[in-house]
């Protein structure tokens, strides 16, 4: 009898989750980290919760999150999807804190820990509800993205002017002060280039 009641509760949970998934609104990615192929966009935790919570409650469901500990002593984020019949689905996701950041004296460890909690909570909710609210362009880290951006050579736009010499002893090209195409910022570029080239007397 008890097993039958438990099976019925699980069936009700599954049915309610199915309805909720059909009713979840479109979740746009409102924030972006990095740029280009090394960036990714995502939906912050607070915005995701504001979208899914009303739908879950409407279908007799709620989310609960807390901490636990693995047998090896690792901190776990415990996420539960609970149905009003008392049936539940539980997920346990280990927390990861980058050692290089935690050992960096310039980093605020409290902020790092809080950021890791928020990150893991967001992914736990996505997993248990069957959502995908992120768009990864590359698996590289934000730090590597910053390094890559510094190495990139900026492309010269079509509406720029002819550039002046960049070395003191370099002779300028003929008509180097004349714009090749109309550019409202040409005057500023001319003055800046002259100052940097060393040809200003």
Topology:
Blueprint: H1 2-23, E1 31-33, E2 40-42, H2 45-58, E3 61-69, E4 75-83, E5 88-94, H3 99-102, H4 109-129, E6 135-136, H5 142-151, H6 186-197
Antiparallel strand pairs: 1-2, 2-6, 3-4, 4-5
Question: Could you walk me through the main structural features you see in this protein, from its secondary elements to its overall organization?
Answer:
- A hairpin with a 4-residue loop joins strand 4 and strand 5 (88-94).
- The longest helix is centred in the N-terminal third of the chain and has 22 residues, at 2-23.
- The radius of gyration is 28 Å and the shape is flat.
- The model is unreliable at 137-167 (pLDDT under 50).
- It has six helices and six strands; from the N terminus they run H-E-E-H-E-E-E-H-H-E-H-H.
- Helix 1 crosses helix 2.
- Helix content is 41%, strand content 16%.
- The protein starts with a helix and ends with a helix.
- The strands form two sheets. Strands 1-2-6 form a three-stranded antiparallel β-sheet, with no helix packed on it. A three-stranded antiparallel β-sheet has the order 3-4-5.
- With 201 residues, it is α+β, with helices and mostly antiparallel strands.
């Amino acid at each position: 009898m008890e097993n039958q009641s438990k099976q019925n509760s699980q069936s009700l949970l599954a049915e309610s989750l199915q309805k909720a998934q059909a009713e979840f609104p479109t979740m746009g990615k409102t924030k972006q980290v990095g740029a280009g192929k090394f960036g990714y966009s995502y939906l912050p935790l607070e915005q995701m919760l504001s979208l899914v919570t009303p739908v879950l409650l409407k279908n007799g469901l709620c989310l609960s999150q807390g901490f636990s500990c693995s047998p090896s002593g690792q901190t776990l984020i415990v996420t539960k999807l609970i149905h009003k019949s008392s049936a539940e689905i539980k997920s346990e996701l280990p927390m990861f804190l980058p050692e290089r950041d935690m050992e960096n004296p310039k980093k605020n460890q409290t902020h790092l820990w809080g950021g890791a909690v928020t990150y893991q909570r967001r992914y736990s909710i996505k997993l248990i509800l069957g959502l995908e609210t992120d768009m990864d362009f590359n698996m590289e880290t934000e730090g590597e993205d910053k390094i890559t951006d510094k190495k990139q050579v900026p492309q010269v736009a079509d509406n720029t002017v002819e550039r002046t010499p960049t070395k003191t002893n370099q002779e300028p090209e003929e008509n180097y002060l004349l714009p090749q195409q109309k550019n409202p910022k040409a005057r500023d570029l001319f003055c800046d280039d002259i100052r940097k080239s060393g040809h200003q007397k």
